[in-house]
Amino acid sequence: MAASSVRANSARVLTIGFFIVFILVPLYWVVVTSIKPASDYLTTPPVWFPAKPTIVHYTAALFSYRGLQGLINSLIIASAATALSTVMGTMMAYSLARFRTGGNHLALWVISQRFLPPVAVILPIFLLFRRWGLYDTRIGLILAYAFMTLPLSVWMMYAYFRQLPKSLEEAALVDGLSRWQAFWMVATPIAAPGVAAAAVFVFIAVWTEFFFALILTSRYAFTLPTIFRAFLGFQGAQYGEACALATVSLAPSIALGMIVQRHLVRGLTLGALRG
Amino acid sequence: MASVRIGALHKSYGPVHAVRGVDLDIPDGEFTVLVGPSGCGKSTLLRTVAGLEDADSGDIAIGGEIVNGLRPRDRDVAMVFQDYALYPHMTVHGNISLSLRARKMPKAEIEERVKRAAAMLGVGPLLDRYPRQLSGGQRQRVAIGRAIVRNPRVFLFDEPLSNLDAQLRDEMRVEIKRLHQEISTTMIYVTHDQVEAMTLADRIVLLRDGVIEQQGAPLDLFEQPASLFVAGFLGSPRMNFVRGRLERTGSGAVVALDNGGPKLTLPAESAPDAPSGAEVILGFRPEHAHRALAEPLADGHARVASTIELVQPTGSRSYAAFRVGGQLAVAELRAHDASRAGEPIELDINLRSAVLFDPATGKALRGLRR
Description:
The structure holds two protein chains of two kinds. Chain A is mainly alpha-helical. Chain A folds into two domains: 2-33; 58-265, Orthogonal Bundle (MetI-like fold), CATH 1.10.3720.10. Chain A has helices spanning 2-33, 56-64, 67-99, 103-112, 118-132, 138-162, 166-174, 179-190, 192-207, 211-216, 224-227, 239-265; strands spanning 232-233, 236-237. Chain A has a two-stranded antiparallel ribbon with strand order 1-2. The relative contact order of chain A is 0.14. Chain B is 23% helix and 34% strand. The chains are: A mainly alpha, B alpha+beta. The A-B interface holds A 165, 167-168, 170-178, 181, 185-186, 189-190, 192, 268-275 and B 50-52, 71-73, 77-79, 81-89, 98-99, 102-103, 130-134, 136, 139, 146, 150, 156, 163.
């Protein structure tokens, strides 16, 4: 018995260790490369930690390559698109879940938007944006991302509202609330973990999006991901700058994940109903 | 406080015709219990009164005013749900006060009302807790508190006790009855539990397949069931049903039980108006069948000899299964009756309290009683 539990334990340690190596080592390599002098990039044996760490890549990436502008754009665009997408998605999902809006087909149609390859719509969107003056604007990209991610937030919230017992809202209706109040004061607060989860997914989808940003922006509203292509030139790759910007762009995702983690795991409906 | 009148109400869910033409008059202040097996339409009826479902046809009037087109919030009714439906993100105080806050009542009055409702239900010390921190019984009290704080015209209860364990259910039943005595507002209460129906109701409305099978005071339904269904639904253990054939004699009538069973002479005043030779079902409750005592047969009783097949002691009394005319029936014995399975027994059946039914229609044959 003792032998088998030792074996099970070491198997577990090995598995977890493998995943740590698989996920954390590349992350470490990115961070450490961002502070290496250029001479340490591709040496044999590799330099695990530079003797003389430097922040020169950060200043270059943020200022020479306009990384700071990209970071600000990305933050504004991703936050606004996330807010827009989750608010609209929550309302739409509620309507689908409670009133069966559009019968069985509308819900499926909404999710089917995710099957659509972005290339199929990028040209018409590009032309429309040019005509409407939305090309290379933050507003334009916010709208594009909000609608692009709407199926995601609708679908996540739809699943959430479907499993939320109707009687809570019915109690609210009998208690004297309007349907709108029941939605905002009862259904949505209870669905907060779902909203948080949807927001995280939408934010990350927008934060890492490259294709739309590349086509729909140029000199002004560009986002972080579009900057990275500048680091690959004819004279070779700017490893240090690329890794510095990658490190910077990781931070918001990690921070967001930590903030909403509490909401994600908290089972708010606990205690509302029997058992 | 208000009366509730339901007229020719119909409601279908797709192909399921849940309520089929219900007419019901509930006077102001009455405690009415809608009871019946699951799927009989009782909850649908209640939800239609609340405004959570729209009627297909028919009218609902509360306090003389037709409310068909009104939203739930405008009907001034309060409802207690089977699963309590407490708002999990609000404290007990928040749960109880939501309806008042939604009506923009002054703060001081809200506090006053919440305090009074909480005291009435003994949840005063729990006001700052969240629903998940409460026991099942406490949650149900809060749910009731949320209803009474509004002082509505009508209370609706949708199987409020069915998720509680037996002991708590008895306690809360008493509580609800006391509440009605205190505030005497019209209450409509849905349950599938015949004990709840019997103990709480001023009037029982027994539903079956979307129509009212019988309505009246609990004891009237219990003693004078209109059909086999009502007779079998109310009472535990349930009424005994034995088949036989009616034989008219000069002044009265006799039921000859099937399979060559005994002939039971009906009390003279209660012979049914059915022809001689008609097939009947004789219904008598276990408490109307006793071990025969030495003294002569009481008036209106019949004595049968049988063998005990099974004894079920319950503590306060015992129930003995026996056969009469080849058909299984149950008699009530005293708790300390020493009878064992397999022993012969003589039983006296009180036929004054028995009911005759027509097996073809399931309806009670009139004339048997009084």
